[in-house]
Amino acid sequence: MIHNVGILAHVDSGKTTLTEQILFKTGALxxxxxxxxxxxxxxxxxxxKARGISVRAAxxxxxxxxxxxxxxxxPGHIDFVGEVERSLAALDYAILLxxxxxxxxxxxxxxxKALNSLQLPCLVFINKIxxxxxxxxxxxxxxxxxxxxxxxxxxxxxNEETDHPTVALLSGDAFALAVTEALCDSDPEAEEAFLSDTxxxxxxxxxxxRDSVTACRTLPILAGSAKLGVGVTELLQVLTxxxxxxxxxxxxxxxxxxxxxxxxxxxxxxxxxxxFGGEIENRDEITLLSPTDAKLTVSDAVESEEDKPPREKVSxxxxxxxxxxxxxxxxxxxxxxxxxxxxxxxxGQFIGSVxxxxxxxxxxxxxxxxxxxxxxxxDAIPALAAALAKLSDEEPYIDAKWExxxxxxxxxxxxxxxxxxxxxxxxERYGIHAxxxxxxxxxxxxxxxxxxxxxxxxxxxxxxxxxxFEFEPMPRGYGVSYHGKLPSNQCFYRYQTHIRRSFEECxxxxxxxxxxxxxxxxxxxGEHHTIHTHPLDFFVCTPMAFMNGLASLxxxxxxxxxxxxxxxxxxxxxxxxxxxxRMGGECDAPVMHxxxxxxxxxxxxxxxxxxxxxxxxxxxxxxxxxxxxxxxxECRDGKEHISPRRGVNPLDRSKWILWARGAYQLGQG
Length: 669
Known about the structure:
Elements: E1 2-9, H1 15-25, H2 46-51, E2 58-64, E3 67-73, H3 81-88, E4 93-99, H4 106-118, E5 122-127, H5 136-146, E6 150-153, E7 155-158, E8 166-169, H6 172-183, H7 188-195, H8 202-214, E9 218-223, H9 232-242, E10 255-264, E11 268-277, E12 279-281, E13 285-289, E14 296-301, E15 311-313, E16 316-321, E17 324-327, E18 330-332, E19 336-340, E20 350-351, E21 367-373, H10 380-394, E22 409-413, H11 416-430, E23 434-436, E24 440-441, E25 444-447, E26 451-457, E27 465-473, E28 480-484, H12 493-506, E29 515-516, E30 519-528, H13 537-553, E31 555-569, H14 573-582, E32 586-587, E33 591-593, E34 596-604, H15 611-619, E35 624-634, H16 653-660
């Protein structure tokens, strides 16, 4: 039996320490390593050892009570949440760590929402119960208010806030009674027992509890101290008894998902895969399939012509435990392994066939940075671009962009820590020293009003393409949807797929150079000519129609917002409130806890980048803040925000046509 388990948490909650303890308790390690000393199995990168934080998701394997547990230790820092997002696709369930002292923080809430949205089973482990301020009961109550699942504490906790806390699993009648009470609102059998003032039998309680966890109706909760090894044995007992195995996500045909990409100097690209069905052996040829791009929702439109999916040969199959690996030779259904030899592999791709399930976006890079090489040599820029392209394979949200002939590369980032890691990786792996501009905020834009977007491309011959869209603004967070199917005799279906593919590329740059979002596009008109139309004409015409539409309808700039969760001495409320107002933010009423308070606020990303440092200064280090991306809203600062356009603007019709047809190069007069 196989369990694929992700360990998720806010930064500094003890994920890697818990992973070490699980590996130690199950005999996979002779001695548990330490984050502080850089000796943990899953923090294997030099940067992770030096900084004491997880940067990449890492796998390790443990065996307990006949169950093979594939652990995925994920980063907790919000700058690396993309690693968490991709790991979710590979999991059977998650262990969510929460600090017994700090409680549920902003990023913890984000993780809870993701797990609920994906209907992924979850177990909560309340860690650090040995620390002063630990309050397991308060966190259980907090989870009851936040989670869609009914929380159930499966253990009695004693001696909190001491160096010798104890944890005892509920068993026998106590377990049956707790399950009866937890399930009485969702299960008829439990309801009948509860109303008759009895409890389920132990066998029925265990069976119903197991089913309710898999169905995401209940939220099992345990507590302990990973640092002291307290509660880890009890955690393993609950995992093997009640949590779902890989069988509940099994498929009948070959199917897997790539959740992580690494680069090896000898083997090249390494794709970490969770296999749902079938098996893969060394030298097998497999098909790589890309899921539908989440940025664009398509309905009532001509289906896109898909290029023939690539088939690649697996040269080696590895089983990793941190940086160590063995040559497995085969990976079977339900298991996790790393495949070598897949040169075109990308994270998020499926192997064999696409599995059911909805992706959940946790990461939203809202900062942009210009990267330039410190070396003035002509070949320095291409070398830097190639290195950043490889890093973008590993973390797609970096999304490095470079136009040939330019002296700078643009990358996206979620924060300063990620930039420091990128800088260190460029030096460590590629020997490249680069300079980074100060981060600037990534804005977006959306059509201001509804209307028509039109262009015709009928000169100079031979060419003929006409495109007509209708744009309709939609609420914040809607994204983009594409609709419309014209008669084939008006516009061949293959040309309509060209229009749609080109439209999707147009979304990257709007009137002011920002990504365009939150609108509905309908193809309402189009025309080809049986003699004059060239297959690429609609790739020339569609961007002109798109930009003509934005120019006539106008676009509204959208700014990114962050959610702040602040814990501070109560006497600082006035100063903190003044800072939030100065940043243009909004906040809820504070929640007082004796001499401390917690406060949630929504603030613009552009004005809040220095807030953590200011808060530390105001409080002499006594206050703490955690952040999470909140969403976008209409920009309120009254400033003009323009991003330099990459390539030629289709609004410059004559230059655009020459450039699109390969007759004009950037930098020409």
